[in-house]
Design goal:
about 375 residues, Methane Monooxygenase Hydroxylase, Chain G, domain 1
Length: about 375
């Protein structure tokens, strides 16, 4: 009975003390590793990301490797201290010293959503400010997955994403946000170079991840825009594609109409068409081996390959209809055949070359 009275009086005394000192002081009395509630819930964690280096970007595999500084900032009133204690206005801890201090305080649990495997390098720095602001910068080198869209190849822009979310704590407890200062911090280092690509702006976006039983978790997507250097693909891909497009045109350019007949026999130009077919097949195989990402969707390269096959088909029809069986002369007379042949001699190549150039211009628009 006496123990019960003592326990009840202790709880009553604790309640009275909590009411006397106010809710902020009561929150400061919580263990440092528990979630900080001094400024209420949810705890707003500001996010920013600086790209130090992009080691590689493989658009065929859909991965890129980058070294980044992820900055997380929040307030924990339990960590306030007199301003004169901080050197240069804050206390700073690096590497192992930072890890030792971070083990003593609450930090948000962050999970990378598109990271491929574990990072090859990871190190953190901690800064504590007199007003209770906590700043953690995590430098990480890791590989990330990216969805590559080659529709506008070779004038395409790709977005290299780094997506992360709060793990375990729902949006009602921990939220991710960013301000203009965080946007200004989020950029690509001027020294960053990517072979075949030109890095651009960094953008930040907020989102939610749905969990079980209606739970929602804060998410931030950081994307780095990179632009392909189009000139690097001209000699490798586009010159061979347009050169192979010329092969079926030889079926008309190498022949000559003479008094209802033709100077070159059908079988000779038929061999040219067959040789062109094998050339396009070999070119298609080469491109698919070196640039597999280009062969999985609708883009300028697949359109030009299809145009090559259509041109070969038209060249075959011209060879059979005009040179082998001379059907226009049989149906309409030698004069009509001669006029149709002269028309196709320039209309056939102009139409297909213009179509090929149109595919390139549409991608560049």
């Amino acid at each position: 009975m006496i123990r019960a009275l003592l326990r009840a009086s202790g709880l009553l005394l604790g309640l009275l003390l909590g009411l006397a000192v106010g809710p902020s002081a009561a929150a400061d009395a919580l263990p440092p590793t528990s979630i900080p509630t001094g400024k209420g819930l949810p705890v707003t964690v500001r996010t920013a990301l600086f790209v130090n280096h992009i080691e590689s970007f493989d658009d065929n595999v859909g991965t890129f490797e980058a070294t980044t500084d992820l900055r997380l900032t929040w307030f924990d009133t339990r960590l306030r201290y007199p301003a004169e204690e901080g050197l240069h206005g804050h206390k700073e801890y690096r590497a192992s010293a930072a890890e030792a201090e971070l083990a003593k305080i609450w930090t948000p649990r962050i999970r990378y959503l598109n990271r491929n495997g574990e990072p090859s390098f990871s190190e953190r720095r901690l800064r504590l400010f007199p007003n209770g602001m906590v700043e953690v910068i995590a430098r990480t080198t890791a590989v990330y997955k990216v969805a590559v869209d080659t529709t506008r190849f070779p004038f395409d822009h790709q977005s290299l994403p780094i997506a992360f979310m709060v793990q375990e704590d729902t949006i009602e407890t921990v939220d991710l946000d960013f301000t203009s200062d965080d946007v200004a911090f989020s950029q690509v280092a001027k020294s960053v170079e990517i072979e075949g690509w030109t890095p651009g702006l960094v953008s930040l976006g907020r989102d939610l991840v749905k969990g079980w039983n209606g739970d929602r978790y804060a998410k931030v997507m950081v994307t780095v825009d990179v632009e392909r250097v189009a000139i690097s693909t001209v000699s490798v891909i586009f010159i061979p594609l347009f050169a192979s497009l010329l092969i079926p045109f030889l079926a008309t350019w190498m022949n000559k109409a003479e008094e209802g007949g033709f100077e070159v026999e059908a079988f000779e130009l038929g061999n040219v068409i067959i040789g062109g077919l094998f050339a396009v097949i070999a070119l298609s195989f080469t491109i698919s081996s070196a640039f597999p990402a280009l062969m999985t969707g609708d883009n300028t390269v697949t359109r030009l390959l299809a145009l090559n096959y259509v041109a070969l088909a038209v060249g075959t029809i011209i060879t059979v209809v005009f040179y082998r069986y001379r059907l226009p002369a049989v149906w309409f007379g030698p004069y009509v055949q001669d006029q149709i042949f002269h028309f196709l001699s320039w209309a056939f190549p102009v139409l297909f070359i213009a179509t090929g150039l149109a595919f390139v211009l549409v991608a560049a628009a």
